[in-house]
Protein: Tumor necrosis factor receptor superfamily member 5
Amino acid sequence: MVRLRLQCVLWGCLLTAVHPELHTECRGQKYLLNSQCCSLCRPGEKLVDECTDVIDTKCRPCGNGEFLDTWNREKYCYQHKHCDHNLGLRVQRQGTSETDTTCACEEGLHCTSEACDSCAPHSSCSPGFGVKRIDICQPHFPKGYPML
Structure:
């Protein structure tokens, strides 16, 4: 009886070594493809060839004017944002292979959204009004003046 149990354990070990369990999840900078864990491409690189059972994932750096900001398996890089001077935009920070370009508005203008895709002129306040926000005026009262 002990010998039978020992043989079962031995056969179980041999079968596990010959037919390993299929991967169901990958850790770290890996992704699952055809039951094996493949390496993701680094930020600033795009996927050229997926891994096989004999070679790892093949990646290539993004081209000039392109970026990818995360570990990925993308076949194409994103184009850097264009700061259109005709919309009042200027480059605040030039993009790299890992970051997008950020835009800001020219002097006297402010961004119309958080993404800063376009600009609008600052408000000009009438006499007796002051700036509440860069785009809103409010009545201006001297200190100690009773508010109505």
